[in-house]
Design goal:
Elements lengths: L6 E3 L6 E6 L10 H16 L5 E5 L4 E3 L4 H5 L3 H6 L2 H9 L5 E5 L2 E3 L1 H8 L2 E5 L3 E3 L13 H9 L1 H10 L2 E3 H7 L4 E3 L4 H13 L3 H16 L2 H15 L3 H11 L10
Parallel strand pairs: 2-3, 3-5, 4-6, 5-7, 6-8, 7-10
Antiparallel strand pairs: 1-2, 8-9
Helix pairs in contact: 1-4, 6-7, 10-11
Bound molecules: octanoyl-coenzyme A.
């Protein structure tokens, strides 16, 4: 397995790869090394048929405190333009398998944008979400303004981005940012259990479901319905669909193979 410095990879278990952000001294600030390693790990996970879902987590105190302010402060406009970060973000954005963020503590700036790249966020009661870039005289730069309005609507997106105020997990749940709130000590356990449950489904159906839902973010309803219809028809030709139906009729658990 590749050796990384800023992330830790657990041995995949029950089809789930756990990735831990691991820069405690900098509150998991997303320096280039970290984002590059994350992109690389996800690209490997995308190729590995044994891995059917990925969970990303931070520490008990912080998911990630944002971009690495010290690293980015050194970059002028041309430096930012040449920076590899957009390539890393693209690799995270296009990861085709389910990605679950398990969030405890601070989830700020680029850290919140990373969590929003996940398909599902599970948050501990202690989690705090915020886009404090405005306090630095800048704005979110990894999709924060766009994903927030599509996820929580204009009122809260404006409040978060313009004021830099944080919101607690419960409010993030009500706003639709977070899928579920847990006791802080149970967050990772729940995220892994959910990932394992998803990993036991047909990987083809899961992949197409993710693709169809994400398409809903950026396409018209009629185009989205068309895409869903085609994916639905495609799945009719898979062995997994037959296995799912047979298993139901035979009153046994299905064994999906991704075919
Ligand atoms: N980048 C770099 N280092 C950081 C960051 C960060 N985002 N966050 C914390 N650190 C470092 C601190 O500098 C400190 O280092 P040192 O020990 O060398 O002084 C160490 O981590 C510990 O930090 P604290 O003592 O502040 O830890 P606390 O547990 O008391 O507080 C907080 C944790 C609340 C998370 C606090 O650290 C904080 O507010 N961090 C910054 C949050 C923030 O503003 N995030 C948004 C970043 S901006 C962004 O994501 C997008 C664009 C960035 C471009 C910047 C260009 C100028």
């Amino acid at each position: 397995m590749t050796a990384y410095s800023d992330i830790l990879l657990d041995t995949p278990h029950n089809g789930v790869q756990l990735i831990r952000l691991n820069r405690p001294e900098a509150r998991n600030a997303l320096r280039n090394t970290l984002l590059g390693e994350l992109a690389d790990a996800l690209q490997n996970a995308a190729r590995d048929e044994q891995i059917r879902a990925v969970v990303i987590t931070g520490s008990d105190q912080v998911f990630a405190a944002g971009a690495d302010i010290k690293e980015m402060a050194a970059l002028d406009a041309v430096g930012l333009w040449k920076d590899p970060r957009p390539t890393y973000w693209k690799a995270i954005r296009t990861f085709p398998k389910p990605l679950i963020a398990s969030v405890n503590g601070y989830c700020l700036g680029g850290g919140m944008e990373l969590a929003m790249h996940a398909d599902i966020i599970i948050a501990g009661e202690d989690a705090q979400f915020g886009q404090p870039e405005i306090n630095l005289g800048i704005i979110p730069g990894a999709g924060g303004t766009q994903r927030l309005i599509r996820t929580v609507g204009k009122a809260l997106a404006m409040r978060l981005v313009l004021s830099g105020e944080f919101i607690p997990a419960r409010q993030a749940l009500t706003a639709g940012l977070v899928a579920e709130v847990t006791q802080p000590e149970l967050t990772l356990k729940r995220a892994i259990a959910l990932a394992e449950s998803i990993a036991s489904k047909s990987p083809v159906a899961v992949r197409l479901a993710k693709e169809a839902i994400l398409a809903g973010f950026e396409t018209s309803l009629s185009q989205g319905l068309e895409l869903e219809r085609k994916a639905f028809l495609f799945l009719a030709a898979t062995e997994d669909r037959q296995e799912g139906i047979n298993a139901f009729l035979e009153k046994r658990p299905p064994q999906f193979k991704g075919q």
